[in-house]
């Protein structure tokens, strides 16, 4: 492959359900930054997307103003073992991108992941059965395992580690760290007027044929004209998971043990990083 000027300077590579959409929204709002549309092209990870070719990917950045820093944010890039070809494809095209890896309490991430998949109807209401049958709920939260290949390929200095907990606690300071890593101008700053994006608590379970029966303009008009508002709200409430699911104690203990083992690997790459404490409140005293 031959690289061109229409390629990203940086990528937010995950992790899923850790606030990357909010971070991408903040980056989009900065002068001198151009983020791809869609926010998550998943070009290097998803076989069907990669098959569209380098030209398709470059087109995502072709309208960037001269001198703008170009970026994208695809959480599929840190989803081993689901997408094993990601890094090989990325290194073949991008010589030295700046990378941002955003994490959070891995147990909380797993629960948010479950709610996400429940809303897409890929899992049922039985959270325990879902956690026992789906290894990806844990795998995607093994941050040391996920980031290790990127550090080996691009070097430790190419990767900035941040976390949702730090951004919630002090968004101005944490965003300044991200901005400095990416080389944004000194005017780059956290925008207080932008809301958090893609919050799991606001998700609604999809319905069969939703695009036709729910999302279309005609369907919305019929609902408002024929279905009383109280009934519409009752149906809507049934499609939302208002109480976060609980993980059985034995299963959560095994998850925590796995995450703490992985934390050791993460600490080798980022010793004394605040995220090691913020994201693992369940570690032994």
Overall, the morphology is globular
Q: In terms of structural class, how would the helical and strand content be classed?
A: alpha/beta
Order of helices and strands: EHEHHEHEHHHHEHHHHHHH
Number of helical stretches of at least 4 residues: 15
* Rg (CA only): 20 Å
Strand order of the largest sheet: 2-3-1-4-5
What is the arithmetic mean of pLDDT?
89
State the helical fraction. Answer: 40-55%
Contiguous runs where pLDDT drops below 50 for at least 5 residues: none
Strand content range: 5-15%
Number of strands: 5
Distance between the termini: 51 Å
Task: Please provide a written account of the structure.
Helix 8 (143-154) runs parallel beside helix 14. The protein is of the alpha/beta class and 285 residues long. The chain contains 15 helices and 5 strands. It has a 5-stranded parallel β-sheet, sandwiched between helices. The protein is 46% helix and 8% strand. It has helices at residues 20-28, 47-50, 54-59, 86-93, 106-119, 127-133, 136-139, 143-154, 164-169, 171-182, 210-213, 217-226, 229-238, 249-269, 275-278; strands at residues 10-12, 33-35, 69-73, 98-103, 159-163.
Based on the model shown, name its key terms.
285 residues; alpha/beta; 5-stranded parallel β-sheet; 15 helices
Task: Write a concise synopsis of the structure shown.
This protein has helices at 20-28, 47-50, 54-59, 86-93, 106-119, 127-133, 136-139, 143-154, 164-169, 171-182, 210-213, 217-226, 229-238, 249-269, 275-278, and strands at 10-12, 33-35, 69-73, 98-103, 159-163. The chain has 285 residues and is an alpha/beta fold.
